[in-house]
Design goal:
518 residues; single chain; D-Amino Acid Oxidase, Chain A, domain 2; 3-(3-hydroxyphenyl)propionate hydroxylase activity; 28% strand; 3 domains; 8-stranded mixed sheet; 24% helix; 7-stranded mixed sheet; FAD binding; Glutaredoxin; PheA/TfdB_FAD_monoxygenase; alpha+beta; FAD/NAD(P)-binding domain
Amino acid sequence: MPEHFDADVAIIGYGPTGLVGALSFATKGASVIAFERDHDIYARARAVTINDWTMRIFQDLGIDERIEKVIEPQDQLRWKTYDGQEILRAKQPPSALGTRNTKPRFFSIYQPTMEAELRRCAEETDGIEVRYGAEVVGVEQDDTGVTVTARDGATGAETTTRARYALAADGGSSLTRKLLGISMLGDTDPQLWIVIDCRVKRWWPDRDLLTFWSDKERPVVDIALSAGNHRWEIPLRPGETEADFQTPEQVWPLLDAMGMTPDDVEIHQHAFYRHHVRAAETWRLDRVFLAGDAAHLMPPWAGAGMQSGMRDAHNLAWKLTRVLRGEMDVAVLDTYEAERRPNVEFFTQIAVQFGRVIKQQVSPEELEAMNAVPENTVTPYEEPMMAPPVLDAGGWLRGEVEDASIVGRMIPQPVVGDTVGLMRRLDELLGDGFVLLGADTDPRTLLSAEEKAEWDALGARYLTIRPKTAYTQGPDELVDLEGVLLGWFARYGVQAIALRPDKFVAASDKAGLAVPAF
């Protein structure tokens, strides 16, 4: 008799990482039971931004239009001093990853509002059950599954749930991580920061600009959030403690120093934080995976903490769902940490260096070196925080991952056409599976019979991209209306690529189009 499972995946913690995990698994056909200790969304606005990569994940989940209605584009940032001198202003270039309208790369969010919309999306998705008020107190696993023990916060009653795998997204103090005996390694900066969230009462000049008040003693991050909210993040000076800022009246002098008055904003809430640079020694123990803050903590300066957790969950979901369906070998799960840890470390280091700049701890020579544009590169240079994502070697990829290689890169997402004239963003015509794309070439002609059989087993599609100046020749073709894709192929000297479901390039004809090994 087959063993009974209550769900394919148990998700422990139902914040942004758990939510995106639940949506990613469910939309790909896996059943989910999520456990969340609290009934209500955490009231404090922790994260302040998402970018075009995260929006592309929302697009894959079919929710990007809904999320876009509760967030706001953010396309400029500046540095200024307390005496009003503007040191630098930068406008971000349009996104290449396919966000709608003006194609912004970054969006301002108000996390509780966005999280509420994510919950509504999940409520309307089949295959997701959420048990609010259930605190997970035990996680045990064996060769075939995971048993989660949860305690009801109201009655104290305990229940057990059986799942094939589990995703622990229960935050920086993750009990699951502790139950598994996984250590959290790294440091915590002793500097204490006050985070002040306000409701906007009237507009002030350049309120929409992300502003860094540059000062060695009191640097400030000044952020316009969505839904009429605004935030300031300010370090306490030596000798100052939380006791000095208990009431709005005590907090107001900090805002007054930047020209704010009670006519401009109303203080909604404030809290105190320290910044962490920490990561779990491993992100997986057999059938249990760590994601988000349970796996890694970074300073806020790159705006990538929450987003990294969402990307963790999405990366794991497309692999694990195919393992559950028997389409991929379980060995592919080893690439989860191999792909995600380097990316998290990349953004952690950006955050650390960005924080040093904000706090004026970087010399002019260091700043010049940080901003130096590499010479003789194939890929056009962009600031690391704004550049399209690239996977490091060690993941589910075939071929070198380097400047001159297309492998590991996320494909741009222009508007393309099909053979009968339908015009859509690329992903809408690609679908959510594996796709081999040829540049004015049928990619099937570049495969051996064995290679094609392997891709066929994964349900791959085969599409040819034609220039808009030519006729299409068959049904399995797309038209490069904006001239983006064929130029992108040519830059890296390839005729065809194999795309993963997350739109990263897994292989190219330059390094061999066979299905990557595990």
